Amino acid sequence: AERTYIMVKPDGVQRGLVGNIIGRFEGRGFKLIALKLVHATPEHLEKHYEDLEGKPFFPGLIKYMAAGPVVAMVWEGLDAVKTGRAMLGATNPLASAPGTIRGDFALAVGRNICHGSDSVENAEKEIKLWFPEGTVQYTHDLAGWIFE
Ligand code: GTP
Ligand code: MG
Q1: Mind giving me the DSSP string for 21-73?
Q2: What is the pTM of this model?
Q3: Transferase: is it a keyword of this entry (predicted)?
Q4: Active-site residue flag, 48
């Protein structure tokens, strides 16, 4: 199954949106296969955003992302990368539709509360970067958890 790297950024953690964001991915039917709270170093974040190095907003982006802990997650399921991006909304929250995470909770592009991988290839790269220890294997068998 396809996997994507989803991260609640420091502003999302500070604003108490972790549960809401996790709930959306759970509710949609995706399977959580890795999760941790981590205060990332600037060096680690520069690797995560290496494609954006040289952009005028890059130093501010690293400072923002290093300002507090983030919630790092891997979600698995049908079309996880594209669906995850759709659930986040547009990069600029002002262009994000209501009903998306950014469209419901954010206004500024530099404080857009969540990250999602933009391609299957980048998802695999990001999962290795944030979870070198690997993800968790288990069967997502709902019936056994609802009925005895
Ligand atoms: P991520 O999921 O965080 O990777 O966002 P994205 O894929 O929608 O956008 P992109 O990878 O192009 O940019 C990464 C992050 O840099 C964005 O989420 C913003 O937080 C920030 N960013 C992008 N463009 C701008 C900009 O023009 N100004 C500022 N201040 N921040 C920007
Ligand atoms: Mg991106």
Answers
A1: HHHHHHHHT-EEEEEEEE---HHHHHHHTGGGTTSTTHHHHHHHHTSS-EEEE
A2: 0.96
A3: yes
A4: no
Instruction: Specify the pLDDT at position 37.
Output: 98
Distance of CA 109 from the midpoint of ligand 1 (Å): 6
Give the distance, in angstroms, between the CA of residue 78 and the centroid of all CA atoms in the same chain. 16
Measured between alpha carbons, how far is 110 from 147 in angstroms, rounded to an integer? 45
Query: For residue 105, is pLDDT > 90?
Result: yes
Distance 144 CA to ligand 1 centre (A): 41
- Distance, in Å, from the CA atom of 110 to the CA atom of 102, rounded to the nearest integer, reads 12
The binding-site residues of ligand 1, defined as CB within 6 angstroms of any ligand atom, are 52, 57, 60-61, 91, 109-110, 112, 115-116, 118
Mean pLDDT for the stretch of residues 76-101? 97
Average pLDDT over residues 37-44: 98
ipTM for the complex shown: 0.96
Q: Which residues surround ligand 2, an ion (CB under 5 A)?
A: 118
Type of residue at 30: F
